[in-house]
Amino acid sequence: IRVVRSFEVTRQWCCWLEKDGQRAREQLACAEAERAALEVKLKHARNQVEVEMKKRHRAEAELEKQERRLQLVLELLMQEPWGSGEQGSVLSTLAGWRLGTALAAGRRSSAVDESCQSLLSHSDISYDRTEDDVVRS
């Protein structure tokens, strides 16, 4: 009778372990699916950040080009002989203001830490649709 009871206790223990193992496998499958979906979202976000960084760099290059043009025009105008001292002082003020703006913009740009480029590797970007994408569509 003790042997039969021991077998029954062992059988019940095995059944419980099987149920617990199945529950753990289901939780693992859910966690892996969620992780995969988050990885896809992260890849898309990295790609978007890279696109925005490229736009920013193009805009900054255009800004520098336009500021240089403006500076050249101001320099040209400053070289012109002006009949009125008021016009010259206005141009001097404008030139000083533009120089101050350019310096302030330079400080703003240099304060941005763009060392995250290595984090933005997009070589492994996948555009697979996830369950979340399918549900939202």
Fold and architecture overview:
The chain is mainly alpha-helical and 137 residues long. The chain is 81% helix and 0% strand. It has helices at 2-79, 85-111, 131-136. It is rod-shaped. It starts with a helix and ends with a helix. Residues 107-112 have low confidence and may be disordered. One of its GO terms (cellular component) is spindle midzone. Residues 21-80 form a coiled coil. It comes from Odontophorus gujanensis. This is RGAP1 protein.
Give the tally of β-strands.
Answer: 0
Q: In what range is the share of β-strand residues?
A: under 5%
SSE-based structural type: mainly alpha
Order of helices and strands: HHH
- Number of separate helices: 3
The whole-angstrom Rg is 33 Å
Largest sheet: none
Averaged pLDDT: 79
Estimated helix fraction: over 70%
Task: Give a brief description.
The chain is mostly helical and 137 residues long. It has a domain at 1-78.
Write the layout of secondary structure elements.
Elements: H1 2-79, H2 85-111, H3 131-136
Features:
137 residues; mainly alpha; 81% helix; 0% strand; RGAP1 protein; coiled coil
